[in-house]
Amino acid sequence: MSMEIRHVAVIGGGTMGAGIAAACAAAGRDVVVLETTEDLAEKARARVLGLAGDDERAEVEAHLTVGTLDHDLPLVGDCDWICEAVVEDLDVKRAVLSRIDGARRDGSIVSTNTSGIPLAALVEGAGERLRADTVVPHFFNPVRVMRLLELVGSDDTDPEAIETLRRFLHDDLHKGVVDAKDTPNFIGNRIGCGFILSGMHAAVRHRAAGLAVDEIDALLGAPVGLPPTGLFGLVDLIGLDVMDLIARNLTATLPADDVGRATARLPEAERRMLERGQIGRKAGGGYYRLVRTADGGKAKEVYDPEAGTWSPARRFAVAPSLDGLADRFFADDATGDLLRDLLGETLLHAADLVPEIADEIVAVDRAMRWGFAWAAGPFELLDRIGPHRLIAHLRRSGRPVPHMLSVLEAAGGETFYRDERQLHPDGRWVDVPPE
Ligand code: NAI
């Protein structure tokens, strides 16, 4: 009989730690949040209570204790799950994990809420007990809203620790749990950030060919099942400063042969925008900005990164849904070129990343739907585009066929999904686990 998670400790009560603590307390678990100072601990308490709904606040307050690592670390000894959510710094995280390990009891589960540092690196050199009991449950922000949770173990992780945490996260925190492998940035951030960075580079060519920023966004939103922000609107939301950091991290962590390496930096025009602080919504504008009009209203303007000028943002008549995606994707026109370059390259990359980042294609599709608000995941989009048409297109262009497309071809199938089953990397169609 495996363990139940009743008592939880969260180390670091910032954005993510507070969200995790609030979710656990609202699910009726006793939660202790430890910070570096008493002042920060009280701030963490306020943050956790602020994340509780009106009808949950009394319950969350009753279950919540805050303290400092220096005074209250022994409280960890009563906990079944100790969740580290401190800053994204390998050395800081390693030091915190080692302190946790000295204070916890046998059989407790430890986790680290990294955005993408491999678990193997975090527990490298740690004792056998810590390596066996440590899992990465990769939550997405905001924790209480986002359904996606990527669950990652290393070669050393005890499968029972993973299963116990999986049950709790699914049954009690109501997360959509996806199994990811211990690779840099896991699934969603690897594909999602790759899409943004490679898209920004490819878009430079399409802008030179006459497509404007707002036009590209209109084509890359709902018509291909991506969020309505499109590409540049999404970068405005995230911030060019954060994208620059992500790119730097990718340069440090991506495998040497990953195609994402070539675009793991900002293009020249975007670098100039970053240098003068034109980084997105939080700085008053990036690719878009809102300006006051003479009559006191607001108007949206769009930036031309090459010319350095602003003009009124336009509305475009675009396909409202995924219907007819294949025809638009293969069209011999500017739209087809754009879709093949910006969306197509990401889909080909995803098809090459299985089984490296996940054992099942459905894990990749769910990660992109639940974590990045795609209406359909990469393999679901490939099925709509037509895998064999795409393979023929690649061959005509003298390009290699990505791994999972080759598996599909060898298995003699038309699509990755058929009759509620999915193509497994070993070439068989297997059941899709229930959502
Ligand atoms: P944050 O900066 O909001 O919070 C970090 C908290 O940790 C702060 O309250 C800080 O006082 C505390 N802290 C720092 N060093 C500490 C130490 N040695 N001991 C105890 N507490 C310490 O950061 P955020 O955004 O909550 O991120 C936490 C982790 O979650 C990072 O690894 C981040 O990469 C990851 N993450 C963040 C996401 C996001 O969108 N913010 C999404 C998914 C993961």
Mean pLDDT: 96
Instruction: Please give the order of strands in the largest beta sheet.
Output: 3-2-1-4-5-6-7-8
In terms of DSSP E residues, the strand content is 5-15%
Q: State the end-to-end CA separation.
A: 25 Å
Low-confidence stretches: none
Specify the helix fraction band: 40-55%
Give me the count of strands. Answer: 14
How many individual helices?
A: 19
Radius of gyration: 23 Å
Broad structural category: alpha/beta
Query: What characterizes the major β-sheet?
Result: 8 strands, mixed
Enumerate the distinct ligands.
Answer: 1,4-dihydronicotinamide adenine dinucleotide
Shape: globular
Task: Describe the secondary-structure layout.
Elements: E1 7-11, H1 15-26, E2 30-35, H2 38-50, H3 57-63, E3 64-68, H4 69-72, E4 81-84, H5 90-103, E5 109-112, H6 119-122, H7 128-133, E6 134-139, E7 148-152, H8 159-172, E8 176-180, H9 188-208, H10 213-219, H11 232-238, H12 240-253, H13 268-275, E9 288-292, E10 298-304, E11 309-312, H14 325-330, H15 334-353, H16 361-372, H17 378-385, H18 387-396, H19 403-411, E12 417-418, E13 421-423, E14 429-431
Parallel strand pairs: 1-2, 1-4, 2-3, 4-5, 5-6, 7-8
Antiparallel strand pairs: 6-7, 9-10, 10-11, 12-13, 13-14
The structure holds 1,4-dihydronicotinamide adenine dinucleotide.
